[in-house]
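User: For a benchmark we're assembling, each entry needs the component sequences followed by a predicted structure for the full assembly. Here are entry 17's components. Please fill in the structure.
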Amino acid sequence: MTNQHNHDLRLERAWEHLQRLEAESRGWLKPRPYRVYAELDAERRTKIIKVEIFRQPPAELGLLIGDCLHNMRSALDNLVYDLAIAHRGVPLSKSIAKKSQFPIFKDRDQFLDKGMDQIRGIHPDAKTIIKGLQPYHRGEKFAYHRLWMLRELSNSDKHRLLHPTLLRPQPVIAAFADDIDISDITLALGPVENGAEIARHPFSGEAEAEEGMNPHFTFGVGFRQGSPLPILPDDILNTLDVVSVLRWIHGNITKKVLPPLVPYLTRIPIVRVSQEYSLLPRKG
Amino acid sequence: MNRQYNHELKLDRALQHLERLKPEVERWLGRHPYFVVSNFDPQRGEHSVWIEPEGEPPAELSLIVGDCLHNLRSALDSLAYDLARVYQGEPLDPEVASKSEFPIYIEPKDFKKDRKRKIGATDPSSQIAIERLQPYNEWNHFRAFMALTGMRAHPEAYHPLWLLQNLSNIDKHRERHLTLFGPEQVLFGGHNADIADPLVRDATSIKGRAKILSYRPVDPSGEVHVHFGFGLNVAFKEGPPAFGEPVDRVLWRIYAFINREVLPALTSYLT
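Assistant: Structure for entry 17:
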């Protein structure tokens, strides 16, 4: 383990936190800290399905999210630092050491202005690779870039709030009764607050009969929306739970960011031979 | 959860990491990852006992330290954010929210420069309280403390908040806190031996090896008996700002400072 690079260790640590987060999330959901109930609108013949949350997710989950994000973000920053050491050797100049950071920018000009300074110490080819990994290449869809999500989540966790987590219903269509047309079901996706509507559909039979029949929902732990939380796209927040988002980011780092950059972590010694050298004794 | 402020939760989390550090350190030290070697200097007629580490402490320790530092720093930033939130009301202006940060400076001019940007949205009285907590105001206190211990050239650098600021930045952006261990308390005794304890026990980390003690016989013709024991700890690697300081002690000092000095000075502004 001691021969590993710092970024590898950080990523492993992030993964440990992620696994613990997953286990804790499951542990919190297992006793079903919620109740699904229905309200009937007899006039409009509509059944409104709501959720009552008995207990909010424990703070532990938010703290694990924070630890995981911290290690993923640090892994990237450590990677740039190690790349600079590989390229320049030790000790790094104070200026490079201080500014060294993995740049993540949504704007090309900002990257060229500030980001390039953050990777000043690394090999020019590695700079080109990092440039190619920038969210600004996605144009207006920069917020869908996984590195951008990491940046937003990490900054939010560090300087502002934890990420309070809420239930998010998974759309299990099959759990609705057979006589309901799928097109008539309106599902509210995404994080929900206590008492929030999670689905509605029309009913045709007797109201009394409907009262006892509620579809099953499964729930996950999601990021809560709203200011001052990170600016993540709504469809990401609505469809992915916390563990999936973090796994997604982790996977991006290990599969997309690291492979092209790892070769630049090896310092290849250049030996200059300035005189004739032989292990054999000279003749004559 | 809702009753607790974010900074309290972060501090609790830091404490969890800190408490996890101790058994991990003990587990590693329990494996005796070192050699004890003895040398004899015939010219001086002196025996000396040295300790040589087998290798560096496991990376796990550095990662726990990193997580602890992250939560300590984050606790302060969360506190600054909550102070702004309480004073301004919610929702905070996104610009204010994005720049909110607990300032830590060793130079008054730097604090003045960044005060408005980082804590300008908080109650003016709380800004004064934060200013009073800055390391440069504690200079005299720490200079006196360090003069007493007689060890350091830059006392202000040992202010808990300044340590946190530096260690946290190093940890985040650069290298892991590689740690070495240093002999702390050394207990010794013997018969027919003039024993010298050569080191000021300031937990200076071992660089390659460290001397524990030396001895020479009082009566060269007699039999010499020497027994000794020593305590070990994990220390920050050589280099500023916590060179040679035992890791757990530094982290506890930072944790205690936040709890005993920072929070009492600012909590009233959270209501």
